[in-house]
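ping. complex inputs:
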Amino acid sequence: MQAAAHRYMEGILFTDMYQLTMAQLYYRAGLHESEVLFDHFYRRNPNYDSHQAGYCVAAGLEWLIDWMQQTHFHAEEIDYLRRQTSNAGTRLFADDFLTWLGKHGDFSGISLRAIPEGRVVHPNEPLTIVQGPLAMAQILETPLLNALNYPTLIATKASRITESGRGRAVLEFGMRRAQGHGANAGARAALIGGAVFTSNVGVSQALGLPAKGTHAHSMVQLFMTLGEGELGAFRAYADVYPDDCLLLVDTVDTLGSGVPNAIYVFEELRRKGHKPVGIRLDSGDLAYLSIQSAKMLDDAGFTDTQIVLSGDLDELVIWQILTQIAAEAPRYGVDPDHLISRLVYGVGTRLITSWGEPALGGVYKLVAVREDGHWNSAIKISDTPAKMPNPGYKRVWRLYDRRGKATADLLCLEDEDPRAAATLTLRHPMEHAKYRTIAAADISAMEELHVDVLRQGQVVYDFPPLDALRRQRNDDVERLDPGIRRLVNPHIYHVSLTQALWDLKQRLIADARAQAVR
Amino acid sequence: MQAAAHRYMEGILFTDMYQLTMAQLYYRAGLHESEVLFDHFYRRNPNYDSHQAGYCVAAGLEWLIDWMQQTHFHAEEIDYLRRQTSNAGTRLFADDFLTWLGKHGDFSGISLRAIPEGRVVHPNEPLTIVQGPLAMAQILETPLLNALNYPTLIATKASRITESGRGRAVLEFGMRRAQGHGANAGARAALIGGAVFTSNVGVSQALGLPAKGTHAHSMVQLFMTLGEGELGAFRAYADVYPDDCLLLVDTVDTLGSGVPNAIYVFEELRRKGHKPVGIRLDSGDLAYLSIQSAKMLDDAGFTDTQIVLSGDLDELVIWQILTQIAAEAPRYGVDPDHLISRLVYGVGTRLITSWGEPALGGVYKLVAVREDGHWNSAIKISDTPAKMPNPGYKRVWRLYDRRGKATADLLCLEDEDPRAAATLTLRHPMEHAKYRTIAAADISAMEELHVDVLRQGQVVYDFPPLDALRRQRNDDVERLDPGIRRLVNPHIYHVSLTQALWDLKQRLIADARAQAVR
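pong. complex structure:
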């Protein structure tokens, strides 16, 4: 296949077929340029079987906007659609529609508000609000969900792993087990969520970061096959990288040969005035091996070299390792806190795939249609109340309590300003009997979460650099109640509706039910 | 970010950093052009918690080869490496190495043998064998694993879902929940594994297929918001697509309004001489709703319209639905076999992410180094015997028993021809006490699995069209014993070593142990 064919697959046809057939239907009905609002949101936090997330971290926005800015229909893509046939053998897409699509098939009419990347977000609040002409807003559904669901999933997992590792460095190592080219979006999301570096060179180049890594077992195997042994491999590495010498010590026998050989090489480096970086443990009982390795390194005077752990790590495995180190290290005369302070986590498969819950169920729902200059709110009725989206043009405010902790996210109608109220009613989004009131005096701060990103296709937002996104993630997590942050069985964070929004939703549901009966 | 930056991320730097640092080490040691062999294989079939695969289906090869043919170092990529610094602030990559990389940093020296796409494969046999100069064979590790692990995972899942659906059409609908651009490789793999079409337009264009789909809930919502109701939406759809009319009937009330409205529109189409395609059910009790829908459609004379099921389907869910239909349909006067014959499965999240096991643990291990014209076999010793790869240059033969069923895959040394033996010894790859002998007379056929794909970077293989890959998958699955095919608790397929390969492996392990002790 040609390179161009591969590029087209990531262009404007990176969408589902039904978006295009619906777009033609809207064109035929004269609705294709009707102004509509779609909300993008997810319904529940990831649940990894034995544990679950209490929050998510938004990610993916900047690359989505890049894609929207660069993407339009090329002649080859229109030609493909022209060749599609109905079951009767006639053309599926008519010339007038394809001409319109060739001319107007881009995202220049789209306005978009979003909760920025790196922010903590919660179920059932709009992360992204798309406003624009119906046909192109519809075609955007699939690429938008693809661009935001997966990065948000991975930034969330990275945040949890970073929390579990007590702030010690997390390196993203998952490229070989990633789901294809998703490796790139996943690596960037991991960096937003808390990973400090990735082994993925291309993404590091794109983001202006150094890429990180050590060496593979195959390097040691090679030197062994050539008769030079593990020590020969380590020496060769130290010769080329005297100031970056991080050695993988588990190819043969971790404590019997790997660590002693590493120490031997580190001593040579020290004599030459270089500071060795550390060792990597990739198999076996990582808690036990890290204690014993630390002891051997300490005894040789290498008290600050890193110990990089890797091999199917995730937040629970790291938690278990740290628990075991705290319990066992003193028995061997190793200070557990000092050992933990020298750990680095290389996290691969379970981060890049969000093992246990490998997809975030983000959806994209029509919430309003503009008619005669005002928004006509849409509802979808369902037997499952949780599946009824919150209607209309909304704003989302985060409320902080007197401790400065986030206590609820409040969904308001466009023209409501919760800062003006002396008392706020926070209604549960589905359950009539569940609500609470909160006095303005008990709220230390209120913050609107969305920013304007696109206005009529023009970028009106300065995308923050990666560092700022990471600080944002860290700040937002710090302002969560510890009950929301915990790794297992977290509290449920409140996402609430104002009384006015609740009333609108109930009225629309009743109207839709009545209409369905007719 | 610029479009070029996004493209570079999928170019030659789509690899792990340590591949590049190892490449420079090999360059420095004068080993970068030493000829080596790497085996790519996986160690166990996917295990989806409650159920597990008895085999995998190979996929991903053609796109890997496309990538290898198109990829080399651009000046911008060399520049990025030139800017990388050591911990001491000096340059990490020296000019002589970067000059070599700029000139020779492509895959023109690589030869590659592989088990073709669409073939059934098993753990611990080399799916891909890479032969070539060490530095570039090493850099290839990450992109090769990325390009083959995930598609093989998804082709396997698609094959299981197709088996579970009793050969009825499976449509791949997962793009919005895919892990980023992995959606494309995943869609193609699903098609190899048995899906008949995908909703992914870009991949369909690239593969020369039509893309498939219906319409979204949002279309019905829109017409409801405009006061035209579900019936108005269905009519609009039927007007534009009279010969492709497939209606999503669960936006409001499946049996109360969706199916009756669909039948009303189908009757209008019938009067105009068109044949309606069918309905789609996306929520609720799909078995019950499909029985009731079938009854309503039958009563209106639409006895052959399709019933497309979607909504978190996988092989177990489909199995459960078919079991329930077989038990309940007769109670409502519906013939279960006829109902099942009109079902179509739209499978999204759980196929494209391989829910339950979202990564295949494929690895890439050094197995031999060429010295003085002969292959010097490599071994990696480990406390876990299963982690010791099978050494040396190998061939893999599939043995079929008298029934024509595949009974074992036999790994041989390069110069062994199992067809010449009167009796074959099949040794377990790790356990000394486990072996069996098989007489040539009990073998109905023997087939070598690898084909030559690249010779010195030149493609020497005609990649079969998608149809041929699907037939191959189907033929191979048919030739598995039913015990291997079953969805839950499958038998273990034998992947065995010849006596000569077993002896080599044992000798190398003993040698490596002795060397480690020194």
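Residues 163-352 of chain A form a domain with the TIM Barrel fold (CATH 3.20.20.70).
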